Amino acid sequence: MAHCVYTTEQEVELLRERQVGVVHCPNSNFSLRSGCLDVRGLLHCGVTKIALGTDVSGGYTSSILDAMRCALHTSKAVCFKNDGQHYDPLTLPEVLYMATMGGASVLGLDAKIGNFQVGKEFDALIIDTAAPCGNPVFDLFENDTNKVCSYTLPLN
Question: Residue limits of the Amidohydrolase-related domain (predicted)?
């Protein structure tokens, strides 16, 4: 299922019971002003197959990095709708998971792709941030370099 911005409690229960995957397309949702998906709410209700999508028919970019950024912003926007109730916005590790293993899981390909486990197909891009190009796939600030940054994700 894509978007799932306006699902009812009964629909969310069906998603959980039938283990249906949801593809969150935050750029498209903002561009079309269709709403903000409460990913944390879906996770809390037991919907665990959630991926990020770019949906360029409604959004303006095919960049998964932009989808990750928009998902973080969307999650923070959902905080505003909760009228001061405690709400934990999505974290970078959660959004990275949605962009990688989440997508593989929703497509039923998590045994073949989605991470760097031995035996899986290589499903990644190697990007030279110093290469000249007219339309970079991600933003660099003036003082940024192409040095590699590492971030260790906790394994569950």
Answer: 1-139
For 9-23, 24-38, 79-93, 133-147, which range has the lowest pLDDT when averaged over its residues?
A: 133-147
Rounded CA separation 2/47 (Å): 13
- Total Cβ atoms within 10 A of residue 36: 18
State which amino acid sits at residue 85.
Answer: Q
- pTM score > 0.90 for this model? no
Backbone angles phi, psi at 79, to 5 degrees: -55, -40
CB neighbour list of residue 113: distance below 8 Å, 6 or more residues apart = 104, 120, 121, 123
Cα distance between residue 44 and residue 38, in whole Å: 10
DSSP characters over 58-109: TSS---HHHHHHHHHHHHHHHHHHTTT----PPPHHHHHHIIIIIHHHHTT-
